[in-house]
Structure formats: C-alpha cells, structure tokens
Amino acid sequence: MGYIEQLLKNDKKPKLWQYIPFTVFFLGIMLGNWLIVKLFKVSTNDLISKRIAEVGKNMNFLEMIVPFSFLLLFLIIWVLFVHKQSLLSLTTSRNKVDIKRFVFSFGLWTAVIILGFIYSYWTEPENYIFTFDAQSFFVFLLIAVIFVPIQTSFEEYFMRAYLMQGIGLATRSRAVSLFTTSIIFGLMHSANPEVEQMGWSIMIYYIGTGFFLGVITLMDEGIELALGFHAANNLVGALLVTSNWTAFQTNSLFIDITPVENILISSLLVQILIFLPLLTFIFARVYGWKNWSQHLFGSIKKNN
C-alpha cells in the first residue's frame, strides 16, 4: 500500500476539508511575513542583526526556532484528533517507522556537508574565520540539538507528509502533489534574508531541494529519508559555518565572510544538479527503488 494510497483503505480516511484550516493558518503566517517585508520594505537581515545586538546570537536563535515546536505540536494534535489519522500513516507506509533510514540519510548528508566544507576551506581559507568560543558554542549546541530537528521535522511533516498526502488525495495525482509541495516549500522561504541578499534566483535552490525531498518521499513511500536529510542539512550547517546575512546567524565554529556578490547561483546549482541527484541514486540502489514513473507520476487509486 502506497504512502498516500494507504489513507484510502478504510472509512476513516481524512476528508479534504480537514486539510484547509491548518494549511491556511500556516501559509497565512508565511504570507504575512512576506507582505510585511515587501510592503514596509523591512530588511529581515537588519532585524536579525538588531535583535542579535540586543540579546545575543543564542537567544535570537532560540526565539526564532522555538515556535516550530508549537507548530509541530499543533499539527500532531490536528492530525490525531481532527483527521483521526495515526502518526505512523503520516510518517510512512511501512508497518513501523524505519529509524535506520533516518540515520543513514542523516549520516550520508552530514558526510557530504563536512567534506564539502573541508574542500572549500582548503581552497579558499580567506573566506572563513574560526570563531569558536567554548561557552557560547556549547550552549548553542544544546539548543540546536534539541530544536533544529523539531524545526526540520515540522517542515517535513507539513510539506512532505500533510500537504503531499492532502494534495494527493484531492487531485488523485502524485505528480501534482510533488510539484505543488516543491513550489510551496520554495516560496515558504521567500522572506528569508538569503532572498533579500541574492535575489529570487535562489528560489531555484529552495524549490529544487523541495523537489528532491518530494521525490525521495514518493519513491521510498515514507518521509524517513527526508527527515534525516533535512535535519542534517540544518543542524550540521548551523553548527559548522554560518554567515552574517542568512536566516541562521549562530555561534557556529566558522563564519563565512565571502562577499554576497561573489556567491554565484552556479554554486547552488552544483548541489541541485549534482549532489542531490547523486544522493537519489545512492538511495535508489540501497533501497531497490523501481517503477519510477508510477511512484512519481502515477494516479492515486484505492487498493493501488
């Protein structure tokens, strides 16, 4: 039974109207943030820098990331009590959540991030400043280990689970579900300071990453791999290296001081066009993925 199709197997399947309130609530928050930035010409980077000057990086990071805990809790309660759907069916089509898949994905992408940073530091050390401060870093480490996986889990449970299943049920199309959630995932980051600094071309990176996460979810019939990748991407990245113009400005080990104008969109395309397809290939070989056209573009039918 497929990841989306499993919701059609009994009379307790979610009703389409049940997806509307929470979806409108969360996307309304995202749209509101974007409108504030655009209508009032607010610089999100200036707001972050000002807040850091007032309370410090750790407290600013905590203020930014704790709300995701409430959003995840709210989503879980909504799914359990309004949809009357199990968390297992929201997570995977398997009989139980496969933790090994999460660990494999997390470890693989962590290795890629670290090796990529080592190469970048080796070739252009002038672009990085080692800023390790034991007290600040270890406090941040504790905050990050607890809250970053919650933040990434909410985004995956909302995008690759809740919305993907809901749109799939509404349209009976895996392709529509895949492309729609990928675009929404990209637009969800439109108020980030990265967009302000690099322009809308960075949407290629965000939407491309969302597409990759959607593909591995549909091919693997569960979000375990997506959960692992996303957690590694945000957690390891935040701990290892950040800059003074991104959404996450943290007490990381290194600060990237590369001028924004020197960061080419081509460097982001390397991840989208090379590394993520390579990861997809590895996952496909390890987990024996087959019948790609049906998994990604097939129709959603009962008893599929």
Automatic annotation (TrEMBL):
It comes from the Bacteria. Coiled coil: none annotated. GO terms for molecular function: endopeptidase activity. It holds the Pfam family Rce1-like. InterPro entries: Rce1/LyrA-like_dom. This is CAAX prenyl protease 2/Lysostaphin resistance protein A-like domain-containing protein. The keyword Transmembrane helix applies. The keyword Membrane applies. GO terms for biological process: CAAX-box protein maturation. The chain crosses the membrane at residues 16-37, 64-82, 102-122, 134-154, 198-218, 225-243, 263-284. The lineage of its organism: Bacteria, Pseudomonadati, Bacteroidota, Flavobacteriia, Flavobacteriales. Keywords: Membrane, Transmembrane, Transmembrane helix. PANTHER family: MEMBRANE-ASSOCIATED PROTEASE-RELATED, PROTEASE. Residues 136-236 form the CAAX prenyl protease 2/Lysostaphin resistance protein A-like domain.
